[in-house]
Amino acid sequence: MFTRPLFRFVPDGTRIKFMRGRIIGLLTSAVLSTASVVLFFYPGLNLGIDFRGGIVMEVRTPGPADFSRLRTALAAHHARDAGLQRFGAVNDVLVKMEAQPTEAQTQAEVNAVHAAVLEAQPGAQVVRTDVVGASVSAELFRNGLLALGISLLMILVYIWFRFEWQFAVGAVVTLILDMTKTIGFLAVTRLEFDLVMVAAILTVIGYSTNDKVVVYDRVRENLRKYKSMPLRELIDLSINETLNRTLATSSTVFLASLPLALFGGATLSGFAWTMLFGIVIGTSSSIFIAAPILLFLGEHRLRRDAQAAQPAKGKAKAPAE
């Protein structure tokens, strides 16, 4: 026995005409994605140590970190280029430095920073030290971009085999637009773009793909069910029928990511904020971008396939009569 849920985002029988806003949705998406591409080149992404190389030391002081004393001590030990950043608790500090040409110079730089920190705040501890060379960072950046490209290709192949080509093109174009907006978000917020952010973008792509497959699957079912219904009305009907599921899933993931964004510290907060942005973009794009693209690509082709199925069915029944 099935029971109705106690809470629904929209009442049963909702008939919102989403396709009326298809032009505005596509134009808004195009403008935002174009701006994101411009931001990617200027001012560019704030590359993390994984992609630009360098040294990162995580320091934990016995009390609240005194940044003025730390900077004075670093200058005294000839480490003026070291950058300080607070993260997490008031006694957690990140010290960032440029990569050094040789291993000996790198070790000397780390030792100088360690001595400066102990001089400024006795009892401080170096929790971790990460060093990434220039060649390694270039390889990581190349592999990260390759991972994004392969994921989009695999999604195209999957949806192409599961649905018609119009669905596959609509989904992949929408995912590319979602990805460019996410990169624009990273460029504006200046969150560090590292391997964790690559994982965040891949997670956003996966979530957004799932959301679009849900809508597309209902469109395909309704194409078989309502063979004479205009495609525009059919897409509106399909979105309305899946709207509660879409909003419920998005809200669950959003609420699960929000505490990580607020209290996750430097390690997790960037990932979580990117996820929150991606959830909003992915959910809205399923309605206002992926669906309109499907309407433009399949307005004649998909309906022609449905109408062609009716005469074929009639001919098959003729001998039995």
Number of beta strands: 6
Low-confidence stretches: 308-321
Reported CATH architecture of the largest domain: Up-down Bundle
Give helix % range: 55-70%
Question: So how many helices?
Answer: 10
* Average pLDDT level: 82
Q: Write the CATH fold name of the largest domain.
A: Multidrug efflux transporter AcrB transmembrane fold
Q: Topology as H/E string?
A: HEHEHEEHEHHEHHHH
Total domain units: 2
Radius of gyration: 26 Å
SS-based class: alpha+beta
The CATH superfamily of the largest domain is Multidrug efflux transporter AcrB transmembrane domain
* Strand arrangement, major sheet: 3-4-2-5
Major sheet attributes: 4 strands, antiparallel
Name the overall outline: elongated
What is the CATH class designation of the largest domain?
Mainly Alpha
Beta fraction: 5-15%
N→C terminal distance:
41 Å
Walk me through the structure.
By secondary structure, the chain is of the alpha+beta class. The strands form 2 sheets. The chain has a 4-stranded antiparallel sheet with strand order 3-4-2-5. It has helices at residues 22-44, 49-52, 67-76, 103-120, 134-162, 165-189, 195-225, 231-263, 265-298, 301-317; strands at 46-47, 54-60, 83-86, 92-97, 125-132, 192-193. It has 2 domains: 18-47 and 137-311, Multidrug efflux transporter AcrB transmembrane domain (Multidrug efflux transporter AcrB transmembrane fold, Up-down Bundle); 54-132, Alpha-Beta Plaits, CATH 3.30.70. A hairpin with a 5-residue loop joins strand 3 and strand 4 (92-97).
